[in-house]
Amino acid sequence: MRLAVIPGDGIGPEVVAEGLKVLRAVAPDVESTPYDLGASRWQRTGELLPDTVLDELRQHDAILLGAIGDPSVPPGILERGLLLRLRFELDHHVNLRPARLFDGVRSPLAAPGAIDMLCVREGTEGPYVGNGGVLRRDTPHEVATEVSLNTAFGVERVVRYAFERALARPRRHLTLIHKTNVLTHAGSLWSRTVEEVSAEFPEVTVAYQHVDAASMFFVTDPGRFDVIVTDNLFGDIVTDLAAAVTGGIGLAASGNLDASGTNPSMFEPVHGSAPDIAGKGVADPTATVLSAGLLLDHLGRADQSRKVNAAVAFDLSTRDPEAQVRTEEVGDRLAALAGG
Amino acid sequence: MRLAVIPGDGIGPEVVAEGLKVLRAVAPDVESTPYDLGASRWQRTGELLPDTVLDELRQHDAILLGAIGDPSVPPGILERGLLLRLRFELDHHVNLRPARLFDGVRSPLAAPGAIDMLCVREGTEGPYVGNGGVLRRDTPHEVATEVSLNTAFGVERVVRYAFERALARPRRHLTLIHKTNVLTHAGSLWSRTVEEVSAEFPEVTVAYQHVDAASMFFVTDPGRFDVIVTDNLFGDIVTDLAAAVTGGIGLAASGNLDASGTNPSMFEPVHGSAPDIAGKGVADPTATVLSAGLLLDHLGRADQSRKVNAAVAFDLSTRDPEAQVRTEEVGDRLAALAGG
Ligand SMILES: CC(C)[C@H](C(=O)O)[C@@H](O)C(=O)O
Ligand SMILES: CC(C)[C@H](C(=O)O)[C@@H](O)C(=O)O
């Protein structure tokens, strides 16, 4: 397996090291190549994602990314120029984010119940396309726009993917989250697409929630969700909510998939670079390890993926929730469990 | 006080009746005129908001609205044609939504702490403008767009309003919620505006959160928020989250303000028409009563407003959280408390 690794900024390198450790424990054939991308490269050279690097990345089976971002960089530079550029250039149209409340993990909810959902967030369209502009900047007549672009092609493929995932799960339930009563143009495309594709999946029950109502349900009744399909921006918000109610960002994994297999998919923890704790060895690498599990599953290594997930589930069920996380120790434990 | 009343659909008429009962108990000079708008009028006549009705509404000091919406009406018709049209035509640029965890109210959070925030949501711009369209509908080449429009004029007035509210509160803290790292055009306008206006309010401390991170904090640490300022769509989401963690939609009040005073402001519970429980007398009118409290405050009747809020606070602290709500009984109790 040829793996490109982008450790990135802040705690990125620390958690990626542990992710690789666990990956190697179950998949000894991993050949990894590190790529120096992120805030420090930009600070040093002004480069974000040189075309030659992008070409090299394309030659890999998958990409493992730690975290990108530093407070010293103005907002948008690294996000648009590196992280989102990777997602768009590599056609990562499925942003896959499972959220499960593991045994032994404390939820901030008083009565969380069983939570086990899979969020399928669209990754290459919507308000993330960067379309828009600023007119008469810094005058009282300034106008700033953001354009959300949604195509039948783009919506249909991610909706179909979500139905396929729902079909493969015990509950076979799919919830579309949008805001069709206000964003009527895009909302109509999303609703019609779900309705049409649902005809091919009669076994899957379908629900719809406006994003505001859905956000409440993440707090009051998250167990109602099985598979969720939603647009790029709503998905950004609800996946953080899903992470919050299942024990926080330290456990939230994600995959940016080109489901067609044309380009390598990219796996990254949902959390950011957390510069405040970087270098202290206290970042929880579990989200990165779970992302490595998604990576293995995506590459058709279901057995190896299961080992990683089982290791995490066991470790979480026996962790002392009061104890300070030590990044390396968690990685060592998980590698031993997964590889043993 | 000349009050226009739009009971609307579903539980709207029931909760509005109780809201009026409490309002009259503290403000005997209320002269109310009911307006028949909503799903049933549209079903009967095809009318949403006739211009003559809009003109009449303008002649009032304020508007009290119950709820608009019915599953028999396609999404967007009533929202765009009636509810949002009222907000836009009457220039309700401040959508004011307090969220406080009252004593005696159960939060779904295990450790909610003290929650007392005021969300100032922009009400006349952003992704709510209805700008956008659909090209090649129902073909594989369909494209649907939504345009978020943000103006210096519109952002500045709501940001200034939020700073004024923050200055008047003990904690004097304001949080901007946006997604400046992705929506860089609109995000830049919002950030720059907050920075500029903050120079006039040196006593107010300012924070910024991306909407995804903020959503997590609503679940993990809602007590950190004092005043929030945000755009129309993010405000829609985070105010439902704020409602969820402070005991739910049955308690969430809102005011749609033309802060300039040119047009009447409109007060409504955040909840919808809840057709499933309509007519059963079990809807909680508390959110409508608290909205009436906002109405009184907006009209300079601070004493009357305080009476309404104190009645609600007392009643909630003594309610049996297990007991079934009876709409009329709650209204009677609150009216007696507020008027007594
Ligand atoms: C860093 C940011 C651009 C990114 C996003 O908004 O997608 C992040 O929040 C995420 O969810 O992966
Ligand atoms: C009904 C809908 C148009 C409305 C909105 O999105 O503003 C509602 O959700 C609200 O928050 O008042």
Characterize the structure shown.
Two copies of one chain form a homodimer. Chain A is α/β, with parallel strands linked by helices and 340 residues long. Chain A has two domains: 1-92 and 288-340, Isopropylmalate Dehydrogenase (3-Layer(aba) Sandwich); 107-246, Isopropylmalate Dehydrogenase. In chain A, 41% of the residues lie in helices and 22% in strands. The first copy, chain A, contains eleven helices and twelve strands. Chain A has helices at residues 12-26, 39-45, 51-58, 77-89, 152-167, 184-198, 211-220, 232-245, 286-298, 302-318, 327-339; strands at 2-8, 31-34, 62-67, 94-100, 116-122, 126-135, 143-151, 173-178, 205-210, 227-230, 253-257, 265-269. In chain A, the strands form two sheets. Chain A has a ten-stranded mixed β-sheet, sandwiched between helices. In chain A, strands 6-7 form a two-stranded antiparallel sheet. In chain A, helix 1 links the parallel strand 1 (2-8) and strand 2. In chain A, helix 1 (12-26) runs parallel beside helix 11 (327-339) and helix 9 (286-298) runs antiparallel to helix 10 (302-318). The first copy, chain A, is globular and about 50 Å long. The two termini of chain A are 21 Å apart. The relative contact order of chain A is 0.18. The model of chain A has no long low-confidence stretch (mean pLDDT 97). At the A-B interface, helix 4, strand 6, strand 7, helix 5 and helix 6 of A face helix 4, strand 6, strand 7, helix 5 and helix 6 of B. Strand 7 of chain A pairs antiparallel with strand 7 of chain B. The complex binds 3-isopropylmalic acid (IPM) (2 copies). One 3-isopropylmalic acid sits between chains A (79, 83-84, 236, 270) and B (181-182, 212).
